[in-house]
Amino acid sequence: MLEKFSFRKEKTDSKGSVYSLEQIDRSSVPNHIAIIMDGNGRWAKKRGLPRVAGHHEGMKVVRKIVKASNEVGIRALTLYAFSTENWKRPKTEVDYLMKLPEEFLGTFLPELIEANVQVRVMGNKDQLPPHTRNAITKAISETRTNDGLILNFALNYGSRFEIIEGIKSLLKESNEGKLNIEEINEEVFERFLLSAGLKDPDLLIRTSGEIRLSNFMLWQLAYSELWFTDILWPDFNENHFYQAIVEYQRRTRRFGGV
């Protein structure tokens, strides 16, 4: 039954050998792709490794997909790196995850700068450890003038938190007389979201076989195409990424119309 719906899991070749960059129609490339990078822990468990080994391997995949996005011509790539619920995980795992932005950006920032990539981060930065905040602040500052691919990390991000905080900010402006309540519409409200300035994702990719949004960009994904695969994130590669885009290009987007 599930195969009939657009939120189906795709049957993905583990090697991804069928799909290539040449199969993508460059005239209809998604402007913005969002990815829920899931399956790092299960990848490690299957190999008898600690969960942090899966996160480390997953970091290498981020580099591959950023490069592939640049080659395809994607304008924005949002990666769900750490959710507001992930604080519930064991402290050792959380501590490692908080070191990953420093490790990734410390290693690849020169490469991102050379590729004209602009780094952004959306989420509650106040709760992040100082070393994590310092790493992302440095990356944001040093890539601010880049006008190529926007690499947007959702870090300590939760969509419900985002929407509630957006409502608070909107009400504050209204109470201060800066905003007439009759003027409020979707476009006005979007200015108060953490993704302000970015177009909504055209395509959402989730790895690892889970078929849910997990509190990720609930407002922004209203009309996004959804693509799910059983491939665990550390095993995800450029060919799987190309497959998702090819499948996206085969669909007809109606945005609620006939």
Topology of this protein?
Layout: E1 9-10, E2 32-36, H1 40-46, H2 51-72, E3 76-83, H3 91-114, E4 118-122, H4 130-142, E5 150-157, H5 159-175, H6 186-190, E6 203-206, E7 225-229, H7 238-250
Parallel strand pairs: 1-7, 2-3, 2-6, 3-5, 4-5, 6-7
Summarize the structure.
It is built from seven helices and seven strands. By secondary structure, the chain is α/β, with parallel strands linked by helices.
Which key features would you list for this structure?
258 residues, alpha/beta, Undecaprenyl pyrophosphate synthetase, seven-stranded parallel beta sheet, 7 helices, 7 strands, globular
* Tally of contiguous helical segments: 7
**Strand order, sheet with most strands:** 1-7-6-2-3-5-4
Helix content: 25-40%
Tell me the structural class.
Answer: alpha/beta
What is the CATH-assigned architecture of one domain? 3-Layer(aba) Sandwich
Q: Beta-strand percentage?
A: 5-15%
Shape: globular
Order of helices and strands: EEHHEHEHEHHEEH
Query: Count the strands?
Result: 7
pLDDT < 50 stretches: 1-8
* Overall CATH class of one domain: Alpha Beta
Terminal CA distance: 23 Å
Largest sheet: 7 strands, parallel
Q: Compute the average pLDDT.
A: 93
